[in-house]
Amino acid sequence: MSEKTESVKGLAWRTNAVVAVLSIIALATAMGSTLKAQLLLASIMICIILTVIITTIRVTATDNLALRGKAIIQGTWFYMSFSLSYIIMPGSPYFEMSISSAVINALIGIVTLIVGAYSLLKTRKETGVMISI
Amino acid sequence: MGEESKDQYGDYAIVEVPMKERRSSLAMFIEYTSVVTCVAAIWAGGAIASAGDALTLITAVIIGSVILAILGGLTGLIGGHTRMATYNIMRYPFGRIGSSIVGTICSGIGAMAWFTFQTWLFGVLISSMLPGYWFTDIVAATIWSGILMMLTALYGIAAIIVLSYLVGPMFLLLSFIGAAASFEAFGGVPALLAYKPPSPLPIGSIITTVVGFYAVGSVIVGDLGRYGFKPRDGAVAWATHIMLFNTSLVLIGVFSIILTGSENIAAAMLKIGMGFSALVFFALTQFDTNDNNLWSSSLAWVNAVGGRLSRRHWVAIMGIVGTIWAATVSAGYGASLAVLFKFGEILGKLIPQMGAIMIADFFVFRPYVLGLKDPAKRYRFGPGTKYSVANIAGILSWIITSLLTIFVAEPLGITPVALGLVSGFLLYLIIATACHKSGIKYEVGEWVERPTGF
């Protein structure tokens, strides 16, 4: 049981770290862009980083497998939802982002969704916590 | 609770939610925020924008939200204690047949009407943002979107929660970004304060409409609240999401319409320059909002009709009826939001008193008149449980109160929703207590619950 609890913790650390790095890369694509674009990507990044921090604290604070699973699944849904913004918003004319930046952001959004889907399925398998918790 | 019932109809429509199916308070919060509020609140804000100046509208929205938070918080608490859907809870204050009738009006028809209106709004959205194609014509878009929106409701509560988790947080983030964009692009606070409403209405009427938009939702909070780990989870999640997000989202709708001078939110977003992004954003969130309406409607119909038709059958039936109705509305009214204002006003005059009567029965009449102090023991459910066929006190209170809100409130200058809530609450207590103390039978007939919960 304790080995499983540790492996779930490791999964949470890895996936959350990847997502945090991706959100920082997304912000970097706004360099040289308009202030509106920078504020948009900074807002999304802040939300994702906050989600990652809260998830990490919740995962570290407990040794209970079910509680760990619940924390990971809820955090994963949040960053997946925020990552939809990378796909939807940068293409909007209001933010005046270049096409290449918009495409990179959309790709970052898609990769984050894939990482999230993997994290959800793996956590459900390891912990037995339902995805719609 | 009595003997354990069999979940024949799906999603514990008329039986107790078991421990293994209970959800976190965060899931409740996300569910209420993204499924019940979501984009409907922004549309609602857009619909009241022409009724008052900025300060009047802000005041009305805050007062309306406080009423909703209290009303829904208390009905959610009843769901949390009993673990039963609203229509089962109504079996006590309205009787078994009374609950079928009142529940059908509130949710069977009320929530289905919301499904209809939101399907129509989706048609408005698509036709406004992507004009010129046969499939984006308002009637065509209404029909195919209605069919799409039935899918998650057909699957059930797990699919609805998954969609909410995926769309809800993004919706909140981007709504605030959209509001900031409309402030930045169209003159901000000075422009807002300078706004003169084209057709001003009394503040009481605006408050009634604000409450009316969410009246069905606030009475049926228990439908989701019964899934919480602790009895108070649903109630706390509801009150928090109303005060944090219903208030701000309705105001975002108000401000966007005022600042851009557009006829609806979709047009406002196009004017700001959100383009195709806004279309995708609204399409996702509208989808997310509307499935829950159909799901709640199906629970009410299961309680009213029973028999061989399961929750899924009712989702399909109500979904088809709602889609046809929405197509008719879109053919008749096009993209005019005037019909949405009227709709909110009607719901605000009929529904909130149902919640007030339920609250009066559970929190005052049963503990202080009947002496049932333990909340978990105030209502019993399960096979063999005996209910009255009709609770005259509840039904009479609702009828009298509805007549007062429709015909008396406005001529006397009283806010209809306030009159409905106060008079519904007091009338039920007065009639039920007077009958109980004087030995007059106010609960008539007897209905014994079957093993299926019907």
Characterization of this structure:
The complex is a heterodimer of chains A (133) and B (454). By secondary structure, chain A is mainly alpha-helical. Chain A has one domain (2-127). Chain A is built from four helices and no strands. Chain A is elongated and about 50 Å long. The two termini of chain A are 21 Å apart. The model of chain A has no long low-confidence stretch (mean pLDDT 92). By secondary structure, chain B is mainly alpha-helical. Chain B has helices spanning 25-48, 54-82, 86-89, 91-94, 96-129, 138-155, 157-185, 188-193, 203-213, 215-219, 221-225, 233-260, 265-272, 275-305, 311-333, 338-350, 352-369, 392-408, 416-438, and strands at 386-387, 390-391, 443-444, 447-448. The two termini of chain B are 15 Å apart. Chain B has a single domain, classed as Hydantoin permease (Orthogonal Bundle). At the A-B interface, helix 2 and helix 3 of A face helix 1, helix 7 and helix 14 of B.
Order of helices and strands of chain B: HHHHHHHHHHHHHHHHHEEHHEE
CATH superfamily (homologous) name of chain B: Hydantoin permease
Main beta-sheet strand count, sense and barrel state of chain B: 2 strands, antiparallel
Mean pLDDT of chain A: 92
Rounded to the nearest angstrom, the radius of gyration of chain A is 16 Å
Strand percentage of chain B lies at under 5%
Helix fraction of chain A? over 70%
| Subunit organisation of the chains | heterodimer
How many extended strands of chain A?
A: 0
Instruction: List the total number of helices of chain B.
Output: 19
Major sheet strand order of chain B: 1-4
Question: What can be said about this structure in brief?
Answer:
The complex is a heterodimer of chains A (133) and B (454). Chain A is built from 4 helices and no strands.
Which features does this protein show?
heterodimer; A: 133 residues; mainly alpha; 4 helices; 80% helix; B: mainly alpha; Hydantoin permease; two-stranded antiparallel sheet; two-stranded antiparallel ribbon; 19 helices; 4 strands; 73% helix; 2% strand; globular
